[in-house]
Amino acid sequence: MADPPGCCSTCATCLLCPYSCQWITAKKEKRKGLRTTKYDCSWFLFLFCVFLFTLVWLYFAIIILNDFHNFNEFIFRQRKLWLDWSLVLLIATAVLISYSSVLLVLALCLQLCGQPLKLHWVHKVLLVLTVLVVAAAFTGLGIKWAEEWKSARISLQATGPFLHIGTVGGMTLLAWPLASFIYRTRSTGLRVFLLLVFWAVMIALYLAPLGITSPCIMEENQLPPKPALVGHRGAPMLAPENTLMSLHKAVECDVQVFETDVMVSADGVPFLMHDEELTRTTNVQAVFPERAALNSTAFNWTDLQQLDAGSWFLERRPFPTVQSLSPGDRKEAAEQRIPSLEQVLEAAKQSNISIMFDLRPENHSDYQNFVNVTLGVILQSGIPLQQVLWLPDGFREDVKQQAPGVQHVYGRKRLENEEPGLHINLPYQDMSSEEIRQYRQDNISVNLYVVNQPWLFSVLWCSGVSSVTTNACQVLKEMKHPIWLLPSSTYFMIWIVVDCVSFLIIIWAFVLMKKCSHRRRPAESETDVLLTKINSLMQE
Fold first, then answer.
1. How far apart are alpha carbons 145 and 149 in whole angstroms?
2. Within 13 Å, how many C-alpha atoms sit on residue 418's CB side?
3. Where is the chain membrane-spanning (predicted)?
């Protein structure tokens, strides 16, 4: 394996102590036991793989932040415990990636200094644990949240060009310690193997843009109009969800549609509520502790009016934006009550905003009556029917007959030979950029949910989606342009320049390391001869 040359004792100590937990000694006969072996090289390779593994998980962790509020709600429904688990995820991921990164940097510095790579057994155990933790995280993601794999695929359309540049840069930097190792190792076979693997990876990276596609690689004049915003339960980052305050905040964000969920009370009053139980968004456990676990539809309207639907928002802080609310907004939030559908329709009519809703629960034995009661409230409200977007699939034909002016929104893709003018509402993971473009050409309105992150909004904007449902209307409102937009000619030029610069730096690294190795060998030979003579004289 590599024969390490001499190195500054202080530098060697600073590097070896955290990596190997050993103090370097200047005596050559003691250093012989610290030479890098094949076993040590295998652990370095394992360290490098762990670093890449945690780096990929960091990427996934950042991507799934768009949907993490759903995970928080899921945990609350299961455990009745509210916590912003995204903070736990990011902190744990940061610790793992920092640990593996520091070890990798130490190993590369040791290699450049010609020092042995003796990884301490504690680090070995921790690296194995890191792999197990990250593998468990990926497994859980695949079992409980499989749609996030589709989110990752979409994210590559936003990050692909930049990931390519970053990966080429990282591999280019890796060429320096690799060249140092190749010129120090005595194994010709290992040299050839490492060179073949390295250049195979680099050639693949240089040609990677041939397979990178993004809807945002287009000319400026080809950019579709900005998608309209649909407020997911209003503006839930600025006000308690499904309240009148949330609707008003959504209007301030230039939201065109207020998306909500409707249930019907035991005495036949439609009201706004998403969860089947009232525990997450009201103080039902304090007011009706013995009935807290009942379905929301089991309460009459008089009981529902006694509940506080706003204080939970200030106490649990479902979004970080709650901390920045003004005193006036905090006071208003604390005074929120569960609104009836009639109140919301009146507010929507005055604000000239459309309303789109689901009717829950779909499996209720009295669901047809729910549809009739809800439809009756809509017709009596006087709101223009074109401002009402009907999502429920149950008894849709009855609704079309009783209120022909209502716009129907379907939670499915279009059927074969279906007429144009259709309104579709789907998760953003369920439609590709090509499908969005085709639907747009066929005059089919597509709304995708839930879109919170600017990178995702940018990809869908470039794809030509009609509208998006969002929790972050205050963020997306401020976007006047996608995060990035590159003409294909500009991206081609960046690709060629990056690849050429990388290639030249790699060649320079190998040439420079070869010269350094030639200079070092005569000096090492002279030192060995001198030490041999000294030993002979001492023996005499």
1. 8
2. 14
3. 41-65, 85-113, 125-143, 163-183, 190-212, 492-512
Q: Helix 85-112 vs helix 68-79: angle between axes, to the nearest 10 degrees?
A: 120
In degrees, to the nearest 5, what angle opens at C-alpha 406 toward C-alphas 233 and 466?
60
The DSSP bridge pattern shows strands 270-272 and 257-264 to be: antiparallel
Listed in sequence order, the residues at least 6 apart from 471 whose beta carbon sits closer than 8 Å to its beta carbon are: 69, 232, 233, 235, 236, 237, 319, 450, 452
What is the domain extent for residue 330?
Answer: 233-477
Please state the domain count of the chain: 2
DSSP percent split of the chain into helix, strand, coil, nearest 5: 60, 10, 30
How would residue 527 be classed by pLDDT, with cut points 50, 70 and 90?
very low
For every residue of 41-94, DSSP letters joined together read: HHHHHHHHHHHHHHHHHHHHHHHGGGGHHHHHHHHHHHHS----HHHHHHHHHH
Q: Give backbone dihedrals phi and psi of 529, rounded to 5 degrees, phi first.
A: -60, -45
Q: Which tokens go with 208? A: 């990677």
In a domain, 259, yes or no: yes
Would you say residue 219 lies in a domain?
Answer: no
Task: Give the DSSP letter of residue 338.
Answer: P
Three-state SS letters, 144-155: HCCCHHHHHHHH
Q: Quick: pLDDT tens for 293-327.
A: 999 999 999 999 999 999 999 999 999 999 999 99
* Run of H or E including 449: strand 445-449
Q: Are 354 and 259 in contact (CB under 8 A)?
A: no
Per residue in 146-204, pLDDT (tens digit) is 899 999 999 999 999 999 999 999 999 999 989 988 888 878 888 899 999 999 999 99
**Phi (first) and psi of residue 5, to 5 degrees:** -80, 180
Q: What are phi and psi of 324, to 5 degrees?
A: -95, 10
Task: Name the residue among 138, 154, 142 with its Cα closest to residue 66.
Answer: 154
For the CA atoms of the chain, what is the radius of gyration?
Answer: 31
- Asked if residue 431 is part of any domain, the answer here is yes
User: How do residues 456-493 score in pLDDT, each as one tens digit?
Assistant: 999 999 999 999 999 999 999 999 999 999 999 999 99
Q: Which two tokens stand for residue 375?
A: 């439809």
Do 401 and 451 lie in a common domain? yes
> Is 353 part of a structural domain of the chain?
yes
Residue bearing tokens 């899921």: 74
- Same domain? For 420 and 303 the reply is yes
